[in-house]
Every structure is written in structure tokens, then in C-alpha cells.
Specification:
By secondary structure, the chain is α/β, with parallel strands linked by helices. The protein has a single domain, classed as P-loop containing nucleotide triphosphate hydrolases (Rossmann fold, 3-Layer(aba) Sandwich). The protein contains 9 helices and 13 strands. The strands form 3 sheets. Strands 7-8-9-3-10-11-13-12 form an 8-stranded mixed beta sheet, with helices on both faces. Strand 5 and strand 6 form a beta hairpin. Helix 4 crosses helix 5. The longest helix is centred in the middle third of the chain and has 18 residues. The two termini are 25 Å apart.
Length: 319
């Protein structure tokens, strides 16, 4: 992604002129994802994480900027070219029950992407491929699940069906939109371990959306912290967690529960709600809630600057 933007118009321009208002959902994001890498995209609700991955998949059209996949510009693909690209980039949605058609069997759900893309000579071959994807997603043996329907499965099993439906096309990238947020804690670990195993076995790259830095630390290689449509800090996950620089990252880290009371941090509770993404604050977007803001913060919009090996921060405190 290079300077990627996605704005949503809200209303028309005024009767006597003036520009139409826009929601700045994603505003100038630049990121790279390597082969076999897991990148965690972290931030509170409404910061633009889901819009970013929907734009990557072509479900939303980018307002500006570029998206490149395997050295090919895929920003404005449509029709057959977009359909072909989606064979390589698949989505895992947050709610497994809403993502599954309740009237189809599990085998039909997992095999449907093959039918859409014209893969497989007949129904029997498609079901065979679907069974393999189900096995890879942890639904073993597949014969126990292939004729069942979504309401007959547990939440964790339904999420595995969603993952199997994404895997059946053998994609190179998975876009996982908070895939464990609706699951019990014990099941979360199983799904996280499954994604890590798929990365090792298939070389799949993953963009993992979460609002939980503890979950990101468990699975990710790198992390990008997002606030109000912008990346404010990014870098290797261990480096960012050990040496957070941006005040927003520090506040997210401060509220992670720590079992040992001697190691607990002082909580940094941000005051107020995130600013309106239609009427953005001047200068640094975080300054209205920042506990260490100073007089230059409302005047200068900071850009990402390196503070270590692969570690970048957008904050005037590092200038």
C-alpha cells in the first residue's frame, strides 16, 4: 500500500459553494506485507482497520493511492481481473455465523468458491478439495462435518469453516478481521495456533486485525498501530511492545492485564472520544486526547519517522 486513501462522501456541497464533506476512513496509509509474514493491524473501533482490508480486497474502491500485489498494480481492477486477483487474497470475517449460508451444508459452503472460480471438473472433485481444506482448518475428519449445517456447529467450528472456505482457493494472503473476538478464550488460542501453523505449512501471509495488543504479541511478526485513518507507529512486534514511543501505543499497552501484580503498569486512560473523522483536528490527530500534547501539536501534522530498525513513529516527540 502506498499513500492509500478511502473517503466516504456524506451529503452534498452547500447551496452557495463549498466542498462536500467526507469521512476520512483511511487517509494516507503506506504499508508492506512480506511473504509468509503476519502483520497485526491494531487500533480501537472506528480507526479504519476494517475499511483498509476491504479496500485491499476490492470490496471498497480506493479514493487515491496505490495497492500493489506481486509487483503488479491492482488498485483499480474490475471484472475478470478483480475476480482473478481474489483467488490470491481471501478474507476471514469477524462473525462466523453471519458469514455462513444457513441453508447450505458445510461441504457446499467450503466448495462454493471453487464453483464461483470455475475450479474442479465436477461436484465430486470440488467436494474432495473442500474436504482437504476442512482438514487443514482443523475439522477432522472432514466426513463428520461435510453434510452438517452451520447451526449444528460450535462457534469455534464455524470459524474453522470460514477459514476452510478461504483456504480452498489456496490463497497467498489472508485478511483476518478480528477472527477470534467472538470466541471463548480457550477456542481463541486454537484459532491463533491454526493461523500460525498455516503460515508455516503453506507460506500464507496474514493481515490480522485486532484491538488487542496481547493477541497481536502472540501471533504477529510486525505490528501497525492505527488511529483515525493513519498509521501512527509500526515495527517489529517485540520492539514496539518493549519500547513503545507514540502516546497512543503506550495507552493501549497500559491497559493490557498483567497477572503478576508487581509488574502491573499505571493505566493511561484516554479522555474523551476519538475526533469526528469528517472534521479532523488540525495538526496531530491525536493531540485532543494526548496526555503529553504541547503547543506545536495542533499546528504540525507529524509523518512517520524511523526510531530504530524497522520501527517508525508519527509523533512530534521524536523530532
Amino acid at each position: 500500500m502506498q499513500n492509500l486513501c478511502k473517503f466516504f462522501p456524506v451529503g452534498r456541497a452547500g447551496l452557495f459553494g463549498g466542498a462536500a464533506k467526507q469521512v476520512h476512513a483511511v487517509d494516507g496509509v503506506t504499508l508492506e506485507l512480506g511473504r509468509g509474514e503476519i502483520l497485526a493491524l491494531v487500533g480501537e473501533s472506528g480507526c479504519g482497520k476494517s475499511t483498509l482490508v476491504l479496500t485491499l480486497l476490492g470490496l471498497e474502491r480506493a479514493t487515491s493511492g496505490t495497492i500493489s500485489f506481486a509487483d503488479r498494480d491492482v488498485t483499480h481492477l474490475s471484472g475478470a481481473a478483480l475476480k482473478e486477483m481474489r483467488r490470491h487474497i481471501q478474507m476471514i470475517f469477524q462473525d462466523p455465523f453471519e458469514a455462513l449460508n444457513p441453508i447450505l451444508t458445510i461441504g457446499e459452503i467450503v466448495a462454493e468458491p471453487l464453483l464461483v472460480h470455475g475450479i474442479g471438473k465436477n461436484k465430486a472433485e470440488r467436494l474432495e478439495r473442500a474436504s482437504q481444506a476442512m482438514e487443514d482448518a482443523g475439522l477432522k475428519p472432514a466426513s463428520n462435518f461435510i453434510h452438517r449445517r452451520p447451526h449444528e456447529l460450535s462457534g469455534g467450528q464455524r470459524q474453522r469453516v470460514v477459514i476452510a472456505g478461504a483456504l480452498v482457493l489456496e490463497p497467498e494472503i489472508l485478511l483476518a478481521d478480528e477472527p477470534v473476538s467472538m470466541l471463548d478464550m480457550s477456542i481463541r488460542a486454537e484459532i491463533l495456533n491454526l493461523l500460525a501453523e498455516l503460515r508455516q505449512r503453506r507460506g500464507v501471509s496474514v493481515i490480522f486485525i485486532t484491538h488487542d495488543l496481547a493477541t497481536a504479541a502472540y501471533i504477529a511478526d510486525r505490528v501497525a498501530v492505527m488511529y483515525l485513518g493513519r498509521i501512527v507507529e509500526s515495527g517489529p512486534i517485540r520492539e514496539v511492545l518493549a519500547n513503545p514511543v507514540h502516546p497512543y501505543t503506550k495507552s493501549l499497552l497500559s491497559v493490557i492485564p498483567v497477572p503478576n501484580p508487581r509488574l502491573r503498569r499505571k493505566h493511561t486512560i484516554l479522555q474523551g472520544d476519538p475526533p469526528n473523522p469528517i472534521n479532523l483536528p488540525s495538526g496531530c490527530r491525536f493531540h485532543p486526547r494526548c496526555p503529553v500534547a504541547f503547543d506545536r501539536c495542533p499546528q504540525i501534522d507529524p509523518q512517520l519517522k524511523p526510531v530504530g530498525d524497522g520501527h517508525e513513529v508519527a509523533c512530534l516527540l521524536v523530532e
